[in-house]
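Thread title: Can someone regenerate the structure for this chain?

I was given the following input by a collaborator and told the matching structure tokens would be attached. They weren't. Posting the sequence so someone can regenerate them.
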Amino acid sequence: METHAAFASKLCLLAVLAGFAPFAPHLLYPTFLSDADSEERAAGIECSIAWLRAAEEIWVWDVWGLSDGMRTELGEIAASGIPVRYASKGEVPAWLNVQTTDAAA
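Best answer:
Regenerated them for you:
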């Protein structure tokens, strides 16, 4: 079963190949911040929000459901006027070859 990180990496590749410059905070911040430490998790979410506020557009693939962190981030930028595109597992490009039925993946 494919992990969320591997799936997000493939989506970033898709964005790059389409001519975009993606940033996936959940791929970066967990490499040096711990989700188990509430202060570090909060700091990671704040950093994510800062980057999201600078975005021209935000893409959200809701394949396994939105995490609490994602909900917080999206709630913070909701009034910013930045377009948010949502996609579901049915809209996952076939070439990604990802299984999207396992909620624990």
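The two ends are 6 Å apart (CA to CA).
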